[in-house]
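Narrative summary of target 7.
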Amino acid sequence: MGETGVLDPEARCELIEGELFDMSPIGPPHSSKVNRLNRLFSRTISDQAIVSAQNPTVLGDLSAPQPDLALLRWRQDFYEQAHPGPEDILVLVEVADSTLAHDRDRKLPLYAHFAIPEVWLVDVANKALIVHRDPENGAYRTRFQVRDLSCVGIATLPGIELDLRSLF
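Modeled conformation, tokenized:
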């Protein structure tokens, strides 16, 4: 829509179930968490997946959310021809500073509906990492807060363990 002039190309918004939502300005705590996770993912995951920061994903005809981070299936072209879809996504990460309710109540059900296998919700205010797995019928069957941040695994990337103690 930005390319056709419907929206300002510089507008920060995302399409969720046919509705446009303004994206909140990114503050230092939020960007710090995204940068830390980006660095950790890039260093640890190497060529097993593509780390995508704050880029669109396409979920059906009516949604193009921009998660803070996405781990995508490896593709030689780095998704040059099209944004990744549900089948390309290994993990999505939403860093929630001022957007906790929106991320939890709008985006998580959308991700579950499209069977995104794993979503991490980083709750900045409460210094918590909540992992959602096993999507079924528009909801995640497994939800847990990570207590030991020294050894965090990713279900779709067995053998990968991240030390996230520096996150909080």
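The CA atoms of residues 74 and 113 lie 23 Å apart.
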